[in-house]
Structures are given as C-alpha cells and as structure tokens.
What does this fold into?
Amino acid sequence: MSSAPKLKTVKAVKTNPEIQMQDASLDIWDKKYRLKDKEDQPVDLDIDATYARVAKALSDVESKAKRAEWSEKFVWALKHGAIPAGRIISNAGAQAYKPATSTINCTVSGIVPDSMQGILERNLEAGLTLKAGCGIGYEFSTLRPKGAYVSGAGAYTSGPLSFMDIYDKMCFTVSSAGGRRGAQMATFDVSHPDVFDFVRAKREDGRLRQFNLSLLITEEFIEAVRADDSWDLTFPISAKEIEGGLDLKADNVVWKPFPTTENYISNDEGLVACRIYETIRAQKLWNAIMSSTYDYAEPGFILIDQVNKNNNNWFCEDIRATNPCGEQPLPPYGSCLLGSVNLTKFVRNPFTADAFFDWDEYAEVVEVFTRMLDNVVEINGLPLDGQRKEIEYKRRHGMGFLGLGSTITMLCMKYGEQDSLEFTERVARDMAVSGLKAGLDLAREKGPAPIMEDEFEVTAAMLFKQPDLAKDGIKVGDKLKGKVLLAKYSRYMQNIATVAPELMESLIEEGCRFSHHSSIAPTGTISLSLANNVSNGIEPSFAHHYSRNVIREGKSLKRR
It folds into this structure.
C-alpha cells in the first residue's frame, strides 16, 4: 500500500474550534435518546449526562474494584468518537423508567414454520421483540406458495405475502405507541414460486410499509442470468404429498438445501426433495427485479452464498435473514449489538494542507469501545430465551464507523479517489485488528465466548464448505474446537491473518471474547444527532443543505 500523505500522524496539531451542536441534532437527541420520566420531564440534563448514564450502566458490569476506572474511560471514549447504537444510548441505565426495553438493535426471528400455529407464534415473538425496541428480520420463503393445498384445513393457502401482511400490521400497531418506528426485514428465496409477488409487493399502495424487502440471491441464479438459462421455481414436498402418491423420481422433483428438514423428505446429505412448480427464463425474473428496484428501491439483494462463505461461524450457522438494515446477517434467534466510531473526531488541522488522521487515538478509542460493547451483552434485555442464549453463547459485536464522507473532505481528499480508498481500507483494517486484539485481551481476562471452547464434529458438509480442512488432514468425524474453526478456517479471519498473523495464532490457541466484531451500519439517526450531522456511515455527503422530515408522535415536521 502506498504511503498517502493523509495517512501520516507526525504533523503538528493546531487547536480546532469546538463546533456547537446543531439544533436538529439536539432535537433528535432530545426526542429519541434523552432519558425522561413518565411526565416527559428530562432525567438527562444534557448530552454529557446521557454519556454518564450509559458509561455507568456499562461499567457496572465490571468487578466492583474496576467500575470507577472503566466508567471514566467509557465517558472519555464517548466524548472522543465512540457512539453506541440507539438502543444502548436510549435504554442503558434506564431500567428504573423503562424496564422492559433492550439494548440490542438487531435480531432475526426463529425459522417461520409452514403452519398456522408456527406463523402466529413467530408473530407473537416478533411483537415482544419490537416492543423491547429491537429491529427484527425474517425469512418468509419457508411458507408454501399461494394456491398450495393445506390438508389439515381442507383448503388452499393464500401464500406467504398474505401472512406478511399480518406481521406488517402488528409492527405498525406496536410502533404506534411511541415515536420510534418498528423496523422489520423480510427476506425471500429467489427460487420460491411466489417470488414475482414478493418482487412486486410494494407496487401496491400502502402494502408492507413496515418492511424492508430483500431477495436471497444465489450464485446459481446469477450464473443462470448471465447464461440466459432457465430457472426453476420450487418448494419442498410434504410427507402428505408422498402419502398421496407423488413419485420422488419424477422429472419435476429436485433435491435442494432448505432452512429446515422438519416434515419434509430429506436425504443423507441434508438436501430436501422439492417440486418444480414452474420453469422460467432467469432473465425474466432478473428484469422484474431490476424494474422494481429502479421504481421503488426494493427489493434489495443479499448474496446469500457469499454471506455464508464469509461468516465466522460458518461451521454451525446457516444464515437466511438479516436485521432490518441488512448489515447484520444472523442465524435463527440471532442477536447483535451495534456501535459506530465517528471518524471526524480524529482529524487534526482539518481543511488545510497539514490535515492528518490521528491513528493512535483512533486505535485507543476502538479498544475501549470494544470493551464497552462487550459489556452490553450482560445487560441485553432481550425478551426471548432463544435470543438471550444466542447472544450470550457467541457474544456478537457490530462495531462500524460513520462520518467517512465528512472525514475525507476534512482531509482535503475527494470521495472515491485513490488516496481516499487507501484511507478507507486502513480505517477498516485498523478497526478490525484493534478490536480483535481487545477481544483476545478480554478472553484472557474474562474468558472467551462459550462457542470458542465447545467442540464441533466435522461433517461432510463442513469439508465441502472449507476445503482447507481436508488439506490439513482433517476427516469426517474429527472434532475441533470452535476457536480453531473460527480463527483458523473462517475466510474472514484468514484475511486478517495476512496483516496480523501473530494475533491469529493467539486467537486459535486462546479464543476470542466474541465471534464477530465489525459491521458497517447506515447510522442515519446517530450521525445526525450525536455525531452532529456528519455524513452517514460510509456514504458521501449527498448535500450540504437539505430539508428532512422529523417524526413526532402523531405528526411529521420538516426541518432544514
């Protein structure tokens, strides 16, 4: 990597004038994150009081002798660019005023079963999750297609989208109790027979407005589009269909992976027998997706094969859904905390020829912030047993950064040019390495995440997913600890090993405090509020002057 001038940290620092918080930023902090009592009177007197509340709540997790020290360090980090996600800022230390809320932004539902009872049970769980302030994602392509026969009811099903309407209304009802909108993500397999209905769903006025929609796009589908091949729309064959005489050797039966084998016919490789409902041109579906995306910016794309290939927990998870904004692919009942670092806080001598980025302080903030986020696991407040077990077992983190576009401008670079790309690469790399170093230190001090010490039996599927296992002489039936499968054989960690090989060796030997560390969130609200209106996430500033809608209970205001 070239040594671009903006990467140096040796220049003299000029005192930067403190920029006052903008009115809109203070307004959003007041309405969304400031703790108030039941009479709507402020408990947090100012933003510093909000920081103190959060720091105390997270430092109280430490041993009694260390609490004061870490509370002080956490406040320092909060004032130097560490911004926990909204649920942490809003709910940490607020149990006396709102005891049923969570500090976790991201969750994914358990698998939605293809039964009336299962669908409604997941809807109940989702309602409890949204009530706690969490966002939630689901995969709905586990539900049989419209027009399929339901033997128990002696009728034909109305299909997955009609049940999504139920979840949509539930989310609207739960979120209408306060100023925060409920957040949901619906994912859908690109080979489901109702995929065209899913793609076009938002063309219907007012439908599914409490959802973001994303298609699970496979490499096989992309190859079919490129080759202008046909594409099969399929769904699993039920045991009842077999009893009715359906022939598994028929031409309209294929064997495919599916999120669950329960009540379906599966083979020794775990593949499920599926019936081909229709065969179409792949490009016909592609064109429908492109048209809808152009007109309505939905559905989004999730390259699901890549997600699973690059998942640190590749050996024990099959991911089919994400949190509402898509930055956190999660397994069933998966949960992840979030936080972002405000990069503008580390620019010295901004807008001058002597501008530079303070890499040392950046690394220090990341390390302290990592401990802060790890402590969130202990006060997660998640409403469901499955969610709590998942986050306590794997201790997933989701630290990212915001203000990249503003920072690049402050460093007198142009967004997208070579020096800005080098800068961005180092920001991401240093965050990952500093965070994993902190994860190693925390594992030594407090113990690694439980998944690290558990043993996992190697399967044929694992050897197929990660050929390096076989290269190392590992066979089906062998047992390896989670820390080895994660730190040595996950593709993400293998990339980290190219820049920090000794760190990876230590993680293989000792494990890490968490299974995941980095995740880039959109950060729309915290960028505007606590970060004082810097650019969102990793995006450029789209305009220096603009108007936006500010949500209030029962009304919407436009602010410039």
